[in-house]
Amino acid sequence: MKNVSVARAPLLLIEDTMSLQMVYRSVLSSAGFRVAVAGTAAEGLAHFQSLKPAVVLLDLILPDRDGLDLMQELLALQPETNIIAITANGSVNRAVEAMRAGAHDFLVKPFDENRFLSAVQNALAERSPRRAATLAFVPPLDRPALTDTSGFIGSSDAMRRIHDTIASVARSMATVFITGESGTGKELCALAVHANSARASGPFIALNCGAIPQDLLESEVFGHMKGSFTGAISDKPGAAAAADGGTLFLDEICEMAPALQTKLLRFLQTSTVQPVGATRPKKVNVRIVCATNRDPMDAVRRGHFREDLYYRLFVVPIHMPPLRDRGEDIIEIAEAALMRFAEEEGRTFLGLDPAVRSMLPRLPWPGNVRQLLNVIRNVVVLNPGGWVTPGMLPSGLAAEPMESATTLAGPAVAPAPPPIDSLVGLTLAEAERRLIEATLASHAGSIPRAARVLDVSPSTLYRKIESWKAQAG
């Protein structure tokens, strides 16, 4: 249950895009916050003067005024207000300007719901004498309690161990290395480490090393100077500098190019960053949390990841278990998601009927928690309410018990790897599908095992299989 004083604290959202207004307000309202919305700087200033909000979520790009100028005026009127600046993707330099001008935190679009609520809860906690207590899992009294921003749902032994580890390590400076399949909640784990640390009021900067082109990754991590390369039209501080005083989360760390791994190792050893084109390094105070959906030691053996960097980062390992190994946590997550999504969509659901409660833990869940949330969202959107029955689940899901995971490979997988001659004349997409289907067949339909053999993430195979099903349907 939320601390009432925190849950009722007024929030002000200043965002000119109507669709984003609706999304942000829905997330905040469903989390129990009272929120006022403005679409322009003038309207936001008027709301601010009348409401005196505890926290302001401010988009820095507004139609009638520069967001940074507005932020400075708001802080002059009420210095104790915590302002969360919102910037577009690729505008980290604007966010850094906002932090220097007095912003409490910043969010770079697109961000997920957990990161959004975490920023709001941290901002409110700094103003409130008591932090909100919204843990879905209540830890035993003989160990430190995690704050509400840890947000894990589930009381399985595996989750209890993760809570114990986070509570023990959060306030140290030790590097945390999170492993686990895609969709298991690695970024949420990193947020929990940050939120329970002494630097919770500092920024949390997340960077997906696999989603950024390798030739731009160095600039994204360490920044660059104006004119240092074609297209560098201004100075850019980079994620490491932006995380100064907080936490830098490097997701998919094993996808980082070898040359950049060398620079990251130097950064870890010296705590200094040197932007591309700069002549002098700069000292920063950053805690590193990293994650991968691969086996990092296997990446070392293959020569894809530096062994010395691995041992430098692999100080406190945390493994996020796959959903299929979490037993009744699946029901807890599904029921919590059902109530939250039902409130957002204005539907009334009574819960999961016994057949569904029996079925969900027996499914393979290759997409893990992310897939389960999508399934529950699908149920809420496509049905009016009542008890969730097997017939409400997405087509095909109920026919995929754990022991029949081979059906995830879609139509008739090949019984053995195809001869190379059989691939000649096929398109690249067709050859790729043949190879994936043959690998799945040789590993009893196990997507995680096939993904390890093919050296890709399980979520990549899952998306491809779903696309094949859609094409066949």
Description:
The chain has 473 residues and is α/β, with parallel strands linked by helices. It folds into 4 domains: 1-134, 3-Layer(aba) Sandwich (Rossmann fold), CATH 3.40.50; 136-321, 3-Layer(aba) Sandwich (Rossmann fold), CATH 3.40.50.300; 326-399, Orthogonal Bundle (Helicase, Ruva Protein, domain 3); 412-472, no CATH class. It contains 19 helices and 14 strands. The strands form 4 sheets. A 5-stranded parallel beta sheet has the order 2-1-3-4-5, sandwiched between helices. Strand 4 (82-87), helix 5 (92-100) and strand 5 (105-108) form a beta-alpha-beta unit. 40% of the residues are buried. Mean pLDDT is 79; it is low at 1-8, 128-151 and 401-416.
Main attributes of the structure:
single chain, 473 residues, alpha/beta, Rossmann fold, Helicase, Ruva Protein, domain 3, 4 domains, five-stranded parallel sheet, 19 helices, 14 strands, disordered N terminus
The total of helices stands at: 19
Main structural class: alpha/beta
CATH topology of the largest domain: Rossmann fold
Oligomeric status of the shown chains?
Answer: single chain
CATH homologous superfamily annotation of the largest domain: P-loop containing nucleotide triphosphate hydrolases
Major sheet description: 5 strands, parallel
Helicity level, as a percent range?
40-55%
Q: In CATH's first tier, which class of the largest domain applies?
A: Alpha Beta
Strand order of the largest sheet: 2-1-3-4-5
The CATH level-2 architecture of the largest domain is identified as 3-Layer(aba) Sandwich
Low-confidence stretches: 1-8, 128-151, 401-416
Shape: globular
Strand content: 5-15%
Number of domains: 4
